Amino acid sequence: MSALSGQVCLFRCLVCVPDRPKLTDSYTEDTWMKLRDAVSAIQNSTSIKYNLEELYQAVENLCSYKVSPLLYKQLRQVCEDHVQAQILQFREYPSSECSLDNLSFLKKMNRCWQDHCRQTIMIRSIFLFLDRTYVLQNSLLPSIWDTGLELFRTHIISDGAVQSRTVEGILEQIERERNGETVERSLLRSLLGMLSDLQVYKDSFEQRFLMETNRLYAAEGQRFMQDRDVPEYLHHVAQRLEEENDRVISYLDQSTKPLIATVEKQLLEEHMSAILQKGLRILLDENRVCELTLLYELFSKVKGGLTALLQAWREYIKSFGAEIVSSPERDKEMVQELLDFKDKMDHVMQRCFQRNDSFINAMKEAFESFINKRPNKPAELIAKYVDSKLRAGNKEATEEELERILDKIMIIFRFIHGKDVFEAFYKKDLAKRLLVGKSASVDAEKSMLSKLKHECGAAFTSKLEGMFKDMELSKDIMIQFKQYMQNQSDPSNIELTVNILTMGYWPSYTPMDVHLPTEMVKLQEVFKLFYLGKHSGRKLQWQPTLGHAVLKTEFKEGKKELQVSLFQTLVLLMFNETEEFSMEEIRTATGIEDDELKRTLQSLACGKARVLNKTPRGKDVEDGDSFQFNSDFRHKLFRIKINQIQMKETVEEQVSTTERVFQDRQYHIDAAVVRIMKMRKTLSHNLLVSELYNQLKFPVRPADLKKRIESLIDRDYMERDKENPNQYHYVA
């Protein structure tokens, strides 16, 4: 339109404008007839008899002589008559339910609209002077272009039957496209553009379109949720949303934004619970990263979607984790399964849930919840898992891999409430690794210690650090002792190594009096004399439980060295005297307790390296059994380790460690109660319990707190108020 107008104006500038003719009624009439013929020719798509410049000049002349109102009115009337005549072709169009007939109707309407637009542009180019002067100066008058739109809207589109059939036809074409058929998008784009230009898009089409869309996807959502699995359904929803977005871009008016919201509501919002209940566990169990990512993206589009997903994600972690933690038969693999589960959830978090802070916090909360459902056991098993990784002979990981494993273990460790249980079992296992020389790496040990110190503070690791200091000091003492022994007039054939342990740092061991060979006893006395000579006022208590030795042994195959525990040593040395001993004879000679003796004999006669033979044969040791030295013993190694039994935890040790933890907890509770009451003097029962929960770092039941309070009252640390039994007073 603007290009044509520009050409006319340019042409006018180049041509000399003749003198205006004198205005007469005859001239006005003739000029109008000429203009009307031109308009009719345009409307009927026939050739115009007159030059466009001449027609433009004629309009300018009429406007200059103040006949613009009449000219505008006559032009409008001519255009209106033409538009009114067009309606007949649509009213007379045969009605049909055939899609081809409906498509033909739409094409006819589109041609009519395109012709009308083209004609209006051409007419406006001729009457441009009128449009830019008279019409522009009268704000109440619509422009020639707007007049054309108004006439088309009034006489064609506003016709009930025509509008209904047009909209029905458009909706039918869209439905066919939604069903997978190919339609003429350019036709739809043109017709919907027509409705938009005529300002009837929302009222005549959009409301009906959204209603049909709502109905379609409501039915489709119900059907697909029943017939398809969740991964397939999610991909279908994503495809539908992509298709509808494409429609908005391709031919719908940009104002049709409720369309996407309608699809999301019917395919997602209405089925959020069903999708999560039916499919989330499957997606997570099977690690379906692609579908989980899609699920997150889709749920982020609807109101409350991420909140629902977050809750379901949290419950899944609690449920799956509880299955791992609560099953005693899975204890052996519990920690590894927890680490694998945490890795898996971290992977989902990073790849699928965009590292959403809410989801990260929910995961931490869920892990902390389920891992403490079974008090104490996870802490114990984590300590044992660390022990298995830090032991010598663990060839599963390099130093770098071991460091990564320890970092992962610390993440699980953070979730545990009963960290004192972990400390007790970790200290017991660390003691064995250090004393029996089974630690894989001092650097790894100190790295783990550093991690624990950073996580729990210096007080948590002070005793553990003391154990390492004792080992270092023991090395220095042994250097001095060797020099001392070199100056002795009666050197021993036995090379003695002693670890001096500070009692407060190390686990407590039950003293056991065993019968040592005379030469060992003599060497102990020599060391005692040496040590107390340097450190007067100290007391030495020998602990044979974790002692170990290397014995030189002769078999028929040749000489071997046996790396054995002290108890194994006492048993084997007996066979220097004779070939066979009964169980009772060995018990009497060594003084080893029954359970420990059975374990020791079982390791020598029933294990992989059988240096003793047992009669009768079997895996268990009984009181009536007898044992013989196995001179036919063969092994490919020169030094054979048989003292692995020392590293194994007995049931008694486990029970003892657990009981010690509970005893220590009672001391901590007592100390906390006294500390609080000493500061507050008087306090109600509920406030005291609340203060205790804030101070204690391990889980405790209200009933246990009540018992400790009663105990302190009995021991006169505090007393009940005489009038109010729920009120306590501190007793100085």
TrEMBL record:
- Gene Ontology molecular function, alphabetical: ubiquitin protein ligase binding
Per UniProt, residues of the Cullin family profile domain are 377-605
Q: In which pathway does it act?
A: Protein modification; protein ubiquitination
Lineage: superkingdom: Eukaryota
Q: Keyword DNA repair, does the record have it?
A: yes
Q: Which Pfam families match?
A: Cullin, Cullin_AB, Cullin_Nedd8
Entry's SMART domains?
A: CULLIN, Cullin_Nedd8
Name the GO cellular-component terms.
Cul4A-RING E3 ubiquitin ligase complex
* GO biological process entries: cellular response to UV; DNA repair; proteasome-mediated ubiquitin-dependent protein catabolic process; protein ubiquitination; regulation of protein metabolic process; rhythmic process; ribosome biogenesis
Listed InterPro entries? Cullin, Cullin-like_AB, Cullin_CS, Cullin_homology, Cullin_homology_sf, Cullin_N, Cullin_neddylation_domain, Cullin_repeat-like_dom_sf
> Keywords in UniProt for this one?
Biological rhythms, DNA damage, DNA repair, Host-virus interaction, Isopeptide bond, Phosphoprotein, Ubl conjugation, Ubl conjugation pathway
Q: Which PANTHER family match?
A: CULLIN
Q: Which family does it belong to?
A: Belongs to the cullin family.
Give the protein's recorded name: Cullin-4A
Q: Which organism is it from?
A: Cyprinus carpio
